[in-house]
Amino acid sequence: MNTFPKDFIWGSATAAAQIEGAAHEGGKEDSIWDAYARLPQAVAGGDSPERGVDHYHRMPEDVALMKRLGLDSYRFSTSWARVVPGGRSVNQEGLDFYSRLVDELLGAGVLPWLTLYHWDLPQALQERGGWTNRDTAYRFADYAEAVYGALGDRVSHWTTFNEPLCSSLIGYVGGEHAPGLTDPAAGLAAVHHQHLAHGLAVQRLRGLADAAGRDIQAGITLNLTNAVPNDPTDPVDLEAARRIDALWNRMFLEPMLLGAYPADLLEDVRDYGLAARIQDGDLEVIAQPIDFLGVNHYHDDNVSGHPLPADAVPGLRPTPKPGRSPFPGSEFVTMPTRGLPRTAMDWEVHPQGLHTLLVRLGAEYPNLPPLYVTENGAAYDGDVVTAEGAVHDPERTAYILAHIEAVGRAIEDGADVRGYFVWSLLDNFEWAWGYEKRFGIVHVDYDTMVRTPKDSALAFAKHIEDTKLAASAAAIVG
Length: 478
Ligand code: PNW
Fold this sequence. Notes:
Elements: E1 9-13, H1 16-19, H2 32-36, H3 55-69, E2 73-77, H4 80-83, H5 92-107, E3 111-117, H6 123-126, H7 135-151, E4 157-162, H8 164-172, H9 184-211, E5 217-223, E6 227-229, H10 235-258, H11 263-268, H12 274-277, H13 282-286, E7 292-296, E8 301-303, H14 352-364, E9 371-375, H15 394-412, E10 417-423, E11 442-444, E12 451-453, H16 455-477
Parallel strand pairs: 1-2, 1-10, 2-3, 3-4, 4-5, 5-7, 6-8, 7-9, 9-10
Antiparallel strand pairs: 11-12
Helix pairs in contact: 3-5, 5-7, 7-9, 8-9, 14-15, 15-16
Bound molecules: 4-nitrophenyl beta-D-glucopyranoside.
4-nitrophenyl beta-D-glucopyranoside binds next to loops.
């Protein structure tokens, strides 16, 4: 077993639109995911976030479960459409729900780790252009202020965005996530405006915290994915990997950490107007110092510049639909399979990729803040609750433990990683896959909403306990 720092944070994550349900209760109005799910064929099985896993009504039970599993922290998101329904005025009832959640967590000894945007823009703001409208960034900072006003006395960890890549490129270019557009220029506008929104919100949160004499930790979560050239000796594949690395990783890391978009990226996407979106002063706002960087990691991308053979399985599958390429200017890039085991999402299982990524970040960005793995986990088919009330999920268990081991080795190799959150606490609404793909370490029966910890949850709980015992033993001996 690896040793982990004594104050390493072990947690689990969810997102509002995936678990809460109560889509039209407590003053909440449509988010883009509520609206998108009503479009024919948008979501597998015609599923919607309307009911979620009823967390809105079962919150205390879910927090009790976290306590039982021994989690140090719970990463959740607040729904903008619940807090500012219709993008108009603040809904106290919405804030009250999150206030009760935070109290419940603190009462259970679980650190609240709050994300402001996990993809559920108020539909009313979408009708004003959504993230293609620069004004949305300023509205986001106001929303951040409203949430801080209600929870800032008790919440210390603030994440602006979860995976802006998905809510820009997959939503506006690939067309497979809400709002379902297929417009590369719109997607890149969304990227820039989300960056700006991040910077404005960090400034706003810090200003409010300073005025109140409080310390906060503010950061962002990115989904970072190694772009591996399919044939590392082939210049065509190497060029494809450079392009995907620029779009997937560096387009997000560099404005925030270095204060500039990568020059090669600007050249790759020159036809789509990204440069024209950047106004004087934007990059200073975007490059606000952050206290941590959240890293979501599930798989590597094996990248080629050659067309796939006719019988090939495409590597990256965000949704059940054969979607458009989400890569502006690099639409020709393919993702061939390379014989690794795959999850039910068709994503490669390759824990070493997480080690490579975490070590690389420290090597490439001298001013990198501390890292937290804010999501990692796997969907597998075939979870069943046995007569004894167990769910045997050996593949998910192995996936999680192998990735934790990779994190431990990355720390030994110098990466400054301070926490690990499993995705996800509960089976939930897996975006365009609806309820078909189960990522939970806790099983949810979608008819009765009964929760049953899977073997992976018990293994994770045991891992947390063993690690803490080992750390305190080392402290006594040391
Ligand atoms: C993340 N991809 O989404 C999200 O943060 C979660 O809400 C989600 O449930 C989880 O991962 C599992 O999918 C992703 O296409 C969606 O590479 C798509 C991709 C990656 C992450």
